[in-house]
From TrEMBL, chain A:
The keyword Nucleus does not apply. The lineage of its organism: Bacteria, Bacillati, Bacillota, Clostridia, Eubacteriales. Keywords: Repeat. It comes from the Bacteria. It comes from Sporobacter termitidis DSM 10068. It holds the Pfam family Pentapeptide. This is Uncharacterized protein YjbI, contains pentapeptide repeats.
UniProtKB/TrEMBL annotation, chain B:
InterPro entries: Metal_resp_DNA-bind_regulator, Tscrpt_reg_PadR_N, WH-like_DNA-bd_sf, WH_DNA-bd_sf. The keyword DNA-binding applies. GO terms for molecular function: DNA binding. PANTHER family: DNA-BINDING PROTEIN YIZB-RELATED, PADR-FAMILY TRANSCRIPTIONAL REGULATOR. It holds the Pfam family PadR. Residues 19-90 form the Transcription regulator PadR N-terminal domain. This is DNA-binding transcriptional regulator, PadR family. Keywords: DNA-binding.
């Protein structure tokens, strides 16, 4: 019977994008409905009656979707993937998929992109302060000329990501792998790269003097260039 | 449950306050709230899941409540809701407004 209830919810939720908040809502509804169903059964209802009464207690789901993360809905509904010059402050954008999207010159302070797929999207000249990118795929994305103060990149994929001319000061980039990542002309005052791995990265005109590289691993070329830019490379492994 | 549209709209307009009142007595999860509203109305009023969750999500966005995942009964997890100080103030404001409106309506109707 749980399968039947689950199928019903699946169908009810099918028009909406599967963001984290929608998934969590479905989980909450599922446990509620299971409990209601078993109560009705223990009160002597037959399976069919109990199922129909359980389903009838749901009401109109679109009512809830409207109240969770209005901006999530907007992102899905905008047919062209261009959000340039948009005010997206503090938006819940968890788990969205936007390939080749444009978020140029946008104010996205405090937004949450956790678990999102943002491959090849462009965030040129945007304010990304305190944005959460945890667990998202930023491969090939352009985060150039961005403010990134307080941004979080835990477990991000950053292959070929372009951070040119961005301010990464104070940002924690520990344990990440940078493959073909571009750091030309970026600032790194107090940036932490502990246990990070560097392969074929681009680092022209960047000052790494005050960045932290404890436990990092890097190829010879990266090592040589970083050394040239006066980085402290004690505790770095060269591969 | 016999009620006309006006009654049901009137009641639904107070969903937030009903939920806040229940949370004043302690943290609850979704189905708890539905059951208590049914019981406390002496089986005369039943809130739909959708109406309740839209109210819960709105209250959370407004900072009147917060939520956390806790253990459920059958190994699953449940989301519990807690009232915040702002939520308490909202409850008492709403309650006072209702008392006031009720007094006036009792005189006029």
């Amino acid at each position: 019977m749980n399968d039947k209830i689950n199928k019903y919810l699946e169908q009810v939720f099918s028009p909406y994008e599967d963001t984290d908040s929608v998934k969590e809502l479905r989980e909450e509804l599922m446990t509620d409905l299971q409990e209601k169903y078993s109560e009705l059964r223990s009160q002597g209802c037959d399976e069919e009656t109990a199922y129909h009464q359980t389903i009838a207690s749901v009401g109109n789901v679109s009512e809830i979707i409207e109240s969770i993360a209005e901006k999530t809905k907007t992102v899905k509904q905008m047919s062209q993937r261009d959000f340039s010059q948009t005010d997206l402050r503090n938006s819940d954008l968890k788990g969205v998929t936007v390939h080749d999207g444009k978020f140029n010159e946008s104010d996205m302070r405090g937004s949450d992109f956790s678990g999102s797929d943002l491959r090849n999207s462009s965030f040129r000249a945007s304010d990304l302060s305190d944005v959460i990118f945890d667990g998202s795929d930023l491969s090939g994305a352009k985060l150039s000329m961005c403010a990134l103060k307080g941004a979080s990149f835990i477990n991000c994929l950053l292959n070929g990501t372009d951070f040119s001319h961005s301010d990464l000061s104070g940002v924690c980039l520990d344990n990440l792998t940078f493959d073909g990542t571009i750091f030309n002309c970026s600032s790194f005052i107090g940036t932490s790269f502990k246990n990070a791995v560097f392969r074929n990265v681009f680092i022209k005109h960047a000052d790494f003097k005050k960045a932290v590289f404890d436990g990092a691993t890097m190829d010879k070329l990266t090592y040589a260039v970083l050394k040239g830019s006066r980085a402290n490379l004690a505790g770095v492994t060269v591969i | 449950m016999e009620e006309n549209k006006m009654t049901s709209d009137l009641l639904r307009g107070h969903t937030d306050t009903m939920i806040l009142k229940l949370l004043l007595a302690g943290d609850k999860y979704g189905y708890d709230i539905l059951k208590l509203i049914h019981q406390n109305s002496e089986n005369e009023y039943e809130l739909k899941e959708a109406t309740m969750y839209s109210s819960l999500k709105r209250l959370e966005n407004d900072g009147c409540i917060s939520s956390y995942w806790g253990d459920g009964s059958q190994g699953g997890r449940r989301r519990y809701y807690t009232i915040t100080d702002k939520g308490k103030k909202t409850y008492f404001d709403n309650k006072n407004n209702w008392e006031y409106a009720k007094r006036i309506l009792d005189k006029l109707l």
